[in-house]
Design brief:
With 205 residues, the chain is an alpha/beta fold. The protein contains eight helices and seven strands, in the order H-H-E-H-E-H-E-H-E-H-E-H-E-H-E.
C-alpha cells in the first residue's frame, strides 16, 4: 500500500472485509439512478478509485473499454485476479494529480468516481477537479458518489457539500444533470446513518 496516498488509510488492512461487503452489492443496483447517464454503445470509461473492481467489471460487461485506477496494491492486485477481463486496464494512480492517467493522453466518455472524493481535503479537491475534467471528452459525463456520515475508525474522510462539487465542476465547463441524496444500501452503513449523494455532470461540447 502506498501510505503517502491520501484517503487510502485503512483499506489495505481491511481488504478481506471490503471484498466481501463491496462484492455483495450488484453494481447495477448501486448505480441504478444514473443508468441513463452511462453510454448505451461501447465507450471509453475510467473508474477512479476502482477498489475491488466490481464497477469496472460491470462496465466492461456492458461492452465498454475500462481503465481502472486504484492506488492500493492490496485491492488492485486482488481485483485483477477476481475480475480478469481484457476490456479492463488497471493503473496504479491516485487523486489529486492522476499523473499516470493523464500521461496516457486519453479522453473518456464517462468518468466514475464512487466513494473517493470525500477522502480528499478541500485543497486536494480543488486541485483534483481540473485533472479529472481534463480526462473527459466533450459531451462526456462524470458521475460522483459522495458519502455522508460517521467516519470509520482508521479512515480519513471529509464532509463534502454538493454545492462545492458543482461549483468546481462548473469552473471546468461541466453542467449538473443529476442530483440525488439517498440512504445506503449496505446494512452496516444503514445502521450507522450513512447516506450518499450522487451527482451527474456533463462536459460542454
Amino acid at each position: 500500500m502506498a501510505d503517502h496516498v491520501s484517503g487510502t488509510e485503512g483499506y489495505a488492512e481491511e481488504a478481506d472485509d471490503l471484498f466481501v461487503r463491496y462484492e455483495t452489492h450488484r453494481a447495477e443496483d448501486l448505480h441504478r439512478a444514473v443508468l441513463h447517464l452511462i453510454p448505451k454503445q461501447p465507450a471509453r470509461v475510467v473508474d477512479i478509485g476502482a477498489g475491488t473492481g466490481r464497477d469496472a467489471a460491470w462496465l466492461a460487461g456492458l461492452g465498454h473499454q475500462v481503465v481502472a485506477v486504484e492506488p492500493t496494491d492490496t485491492l488492485r492486485l486482488r481485483a485483477i485476479a477476481l475480475h480478469p477481463s481484457p476490456a479492463i486496464t488497471w493503473i496504479d494512480d491516485s487523486l489529486p494529480e492522476l499523473a499516470a492517467l493523464r500521461s496516457r493522453a486519453q479522453a473518456f466518455d464517462l468518468v466514475m468516481l464512487t466513494a473517493v472524493f470525500m477522502h480528499l481535503d478541500a485543497e486536494q479537491r480543488a486541485r483534483a477537479m481540473p485533472n479529472i475534467a481534463s480526462q473527459i471528452a466533450p459531451g462526456g459525463r462524470l458521475i460522483i458518489r459522495l458519502r455522508h456520515g460517521p467516519v470509520p475508525p482508521g479512515r480519513r474522510m471529509f464532509e463534502v457539500a454538493s454545492e462545492e462539487i458543482i461549483a468546481l465542476a462548473g469552473a471546468q465547463k461541466m453542467t449538473l444533470v443529476f442530483d440525488e441524496h439517498a440512504g445506503s444500501q449496505d446494512a452496516r452503513n444503514q445502521a450507522a446513518g450513512v447516506t450518499w449523494t450522487t451527482l451527474g455532470l456533463m462536459k460542454a461540447y
